[in-house]
Amino acid sequence: MKIIHITKDQKLSLKRSIDAGTEEQRKIVREIIERVKKEGDQALYEYTKRFDGADLQSLHVSKEEISRAYEAVDKEFIDIVQEAAENIFHFHEKQKKESWFYFDEKGTMLGQKLTPVDAVGVYVPGGTAAYPSSVLMNIMPAKVAGVGRIVLVSPPDQNGSLPAEVLVAANEAGVSEIYKAGGAQAIAALAYGTETIEPVDKIVGPGNIFVALAKREVFGTVDIDMIAGPSEIVVLADETAVPHEVAADLLSQAEHDRLATSILVTPSIKLAKEVQKEVVAQLADLPRKDIAAASIEQFGAIYVTDSIEEAVGIVNQLAPEHLEVLTENPTGVLPKIKHAGAIFLGRYSSEPVGDYFAGPNHVLPTNGTARFSSPLNVDDFMKKSSIISYSEEAFRAHASKIAKFARYEGLEAHARAIEARLEKRGSDRNE
Amino acid sequence: MKIIHITKDQKLSLKRSIDAGTEEQRKIVREIIERVKKEGDQALYEYTKRFDGADLQSLHVSKEEISRAYEAVDKEFIDIVQEAAENIFHFHEKQKKESWFYFDEKGTMLGQKLTPVDAVGVYVPGGTAAYPSSVLMNIMPAKVAGVGRIVLVSPPDQNGSLPAEVLVAANEAGVSEIYKAGGAQAIAALAYGTETIEPVDKIVGPGNIFVALAKREVFGTVDIDMIAGPSEIVVLADETAVPHEVAADLLSQAEHDRLATSILVTPSIKLAKEVQKEVVAQLADLPRKDIAAASIEQFGAIYVTDSIEEAVGIVNQLAPEHLEVLTENPTGVLPKIKHAGAIFLGRYSSEPVGDYFAGPNHVLPTNGTARFSSPLNVDDFMKKSSIISYSEEAFRAHASKIAKFARYEGLEAHARAIEARLEKRGSDRNE
Fold first, then answer.
1. CA-nearest residue of chain A to B18?
2. Which of A177, A245, A321, A351 is catalytic?
3. CB of A385 within 8 A of CB of A113?
4. For this protein, what does the record note about how its cofactor is bound (chains A, B) (predicted)?
């Protein structure tokens, strides 16, 4: 892991170009979507056979399959999932907003009515990427928002099964329906509906390039979440940080993906050198050391700054997905942090505490997008309607100004709609 | 305007396919973006000459130009803009959320830190589409959110000027910088920056197909707002509504655009017939009657239902941009309305009241997207960072569960990052 002395004026960024897919991949995705639109379930069965090797009798996961999943997993796993689900529910409940109104002395009422989205689809990738923690993190904000129908889709294995851990986590999170379908075909089914799967209004959850491209294609018909990039951690530390803990945290991110980014920013050259040594030592016996080493080699870095203030400046430039603050007084640094998906304060807030357990969502903005986007949250599953209720008194007080503004913009029918309320006419029942 | 008797089970939708541009248009847009990235200001000057016919000396609008704009417009226009700006400010201020935290008995602190986006770009179309009300509506939520830098871009006329009304509205709304640049080149400049224009983090505001395609291209590098479709109004009315007022409101939407949609939903066949007659009568002498008549002819409709409940069901299916409720007790209907961008209650809340003056935003979800999206609002210009601060006590209480969950997901380095805090090692300064 290279140590780089950095000056105030250096421009840094975590932005990488997003994989927009090849022309060939986009064509395949468009074809799949068109076939699902036209042929419905039949297309899902055929694609599942072709891509996942499973000859399904039914797309729908039955209650019996969910019961069997509970028998297949450790009792301890269920306990931990339940405790994590409780923490996640609690944190997300605090986010929930209510409709609000205010009134003025003329009898005007203005406000926002908040309503949940009717139906949400959650995509869960297949194979080793089927993380039960992601199932909780994607379903529970929708559940807390009050979404009435939450539909999980995931590609089955060759035997036509979904992982027991995924079924248990989904059930604990409060899923409404689960279907065996993956790839672009599952996204198309969620957006346009088939005989078996009713369409939804919003689709969330990570997936491979075909899933990502399909989400982009159906965006507008339904809403989608962010397209996630590789994971990132930035550790902001001073000389009070413990080197082997810092190194362990950097590696926990690096093991995710060869493309993951792990960065230490510190004014302490001593810490920098010790962490550098610890990373090498700890890498040696990691099960996923090939992945972690590749990530550290290509994207890892230790930036040494002149001061902690400059280090904070670097953090705000990078706008990382995960930020750990391992300084003498972490809360003292917090007001200066402008851009980060999740901020972990102090040595007992190691990043995995947030990944699984604490309650805040682990679906976070990557790729520098923490400059303008947020962790997945309850607001993502609710929408606002403006409420405008003018009294006759308020209307008469302002009507001429409103009509004038309309005419300034050349919109005569707008002005006349206002003036229609001021006229006395034969068709006016209220006269 | 045709009257259609409708039954409960009929499926209706306002969704129309979104103009995704031709392959040729997309190619042009990508070329423009690449040139602006490479050549910066020089490309902006050349494109402005080619597309807008203006030979600019400077991209930046000076303080003197803004002063001259105030002299060029009516005093009354300034007064109305100021009063509207005050109302808009007031309504949007009520939306502003604060950072929040909570604590547990083990000393854990969890919460969300809310911060404004650093810099926002607002696109204002040229020519007759340069509405000062839109300038207010796009800038002010960002201002209220606390965005430090708000940059307006708009294509100049052949003399290299922007409309005085736009400059006055922008200044009243609190703009930071104004530049003369339009089309895809202006979007590229906002996303990637040039010598004169620093890049922003988010771009909002309507534009033609080239602007819309450019926004799609730069999405990810910066955030963008929704791509707006043609305007829509649905009037939900019973026999107490005043026919000539209903007709005037339908026409005020129809005059916007040949593609606009104006729909009346009512259980009253009497009202339906009277409104139908009034629409014809009022169309006759509208200045924009060609546009309004085309819109009414192609997309206008009067749906007659069996009951007011069924009419509400139709409204929720349509999920309109604007909804007027002209029934005996409009507030009584409100709880049943699930999907609408803005809801206008009662006869004195004619839709133009909200367009210009009342305070709620007129940038609203179109094309059925009110099922999952919201009016432009302060939250769109703020983002959340999760805060996780675990105490040693809380950490020790949960560490083994967190490590176990990590190992269930096959992520050993995650488990070790947790366990690193439990070890005693030589490099641990705290021992």
1. A220
2. A321
3. yes
4. Binds 1 zinc ion per subunit.
Task: Give the CA count within 13 Å in the CB-facing half-sphere of B416.
Answer: 23
**Is A344 in the B-facing interface, judged by CB distances under 8 Å?**
yes
**Where along chain A do the CATH 3.40.50.1980 domains lie?**
3-17+229-358, 23-224
A253 to chain B nearest CA, in Å?
8
Q: List CB contacts (< 8 A) between A414 and chain B.
A: 252, 255, 352, 355
A225 contacts chain B (CB < 8 A) = no
Taking phi first (over 0 means left), then psi (-120 to 50 degrees means alpha), and beta for anything else, what does residue A282 get? alpha
Q: What mean pLDDT do residues A189-201 have?
A: 97
Distance from the A80 Cα atom to the nearest Cα atom in chain B, whole angstroms = 7
**Region of residue A196 (phi > 0: left; psi between -120 and 50: alpha; otherwise: beta):** alpha
Express each pLDDT in A114-168 by its tens digit: 999 999 999 999 977 778 999 999 999 999 999 999 999 999 999 999 999 999 9
In Å, how far is B428's CA from the nearest CA of chain A? 6
Confidence of residue A430 (pLDDT cuts 50, 70, 90): very low
Instruction: Provide the annotated active-site residues of B.
Output: 321-322
Please check whether residue A84 touches B, CB under 8 A. yes
What burial letters (b/e) apply to A308-325, b meaning 16+ CB within 10 Å? bebbbbbbbbbbbbbbbb
Which CATH code fits A23-224? 3.40.50.1980
* Residue A243 clears pLDDT 90, i.e. is over it: yes
Interface contact flag, B370 A383, Cβ < 8 Å: yes
DSSP type of residue B48? I
Residues of A within 8 A of B414 (CB-CB) are: 252, 255, 352, 355
Nearest to A348 among B202, B343, B395 (CB): B395
Residue contact B413–A357, C-beta within 8 A:
no
How far is the alpha carbon of B108 from chain A, nearest alpha carbon, in Å? Answer: 9
CATH 3.40.50.1980 segments of chain B: 3-15+230-358, 23-224
CA angle B314, B318, B322 (to 5 degrees): 110
Terminal Cα distance for chain A, rounded: 82
**pLDDT tens for residues A13-70?**
888 776 778 889 999 999 999 999 999 999 999 999 999 999 999 999 999 999 999 9
**Residue numbers in A near B364 (CB within 8 A):** 386
Cα–Cα distance, B389 to B406 (Å, whole number): 19
- Asked if the C-beta of A331 comes within 8 angstroms of chain B's C-beta atoms, the answer is yes
DSSP string, A281-332: HHHTT-TTHHHHHHHHHHH-EEEE-SSHHHHHHHHHHH--SEEEEESSSHHH
Which chain B residues are Cβ-neighbours of A340 within 8 angstroms?
385
d(CA A426, CA A408): 30
Q: Which of A244, A354, A414 sits opposite B352 (nearest CB)?
A: A414
The reply to whether A322 belongs to the active site is: yes
CATH of B3-15+230-358, one of 3.40.30.10, 3.40.50.1980, 3.40.50.880, 3.10.200.10: 3.40.50.1980
The contacts of residue A9 (CB under 8 Å, 6+ apart) are: none
Whole-angstrom Cα distance, residue B38 to residue B50?
Answer: 18
Average per-residue pLDDT in chain B?
93
Q: How far apart are CA A28 and CA A12, in angstroms?
A: 36
Domain topology for A3-17+229-358: Rossmann fold (3.40.50)
Does the annotation mark A105 as catalytic? Answer: no
